[in-house]
Design a protein that fits this description.
By secondary structure, the chain is α+β, with helices and mostly antiparallel strands. It folds into two domains: 37 residues; 69 residues, High potential iron-sulphur protein (High-Potential Iron-Sulfur Protein, Chain A). Helices cover 36% and strands 12% of the residues. It has two helices and three strands. Strands 1-3-2 form a three-stranded mixed sheet, with helices on one face. It is elongated. The protein starts with a helix and ends in a 12-residue tail after the last strand. Bound molecules: iron/sulfur cluster. The site of iron/sulfur cluster has 13 residues, from loops.
Amino acid sequence: MSCTNSLSRRLFLQRLGLGVCVVPLAAGAVRVAQASDAALLSANAPEAKAVQYTEDAKSAKGAAAGNTCANCALYQGANGSTQGPCQIFPGKQVKAAGWCSLWAAQM
Ligand code: SF4
């Protein structure tokens, strides 16, 4: 094997590695952009009612004091956001001040 082949193989692998790293990042950015455009989940939607989702945790009968979507492990909104995606409701956003019966403590 010549030095040129070894060098071009190294360059190929470096570029392949860069591509493998950049493509998931770009896909993640697209998902975040799409998630921020998602419609707000209605508390009257059947899937919301099924887990007693409410936009105001203070009005929820089963919510422990201080538990809201904003501090739920399944909330994917940015810190300080007023609403954001939730892993339970793909394609929808929930209110940061909301709550549902699937609330989970962050690890
Ligand atoms: Fe809110 Fe968590 Fe329920 Fe999603 S799973 S609606 S973030 S409490």
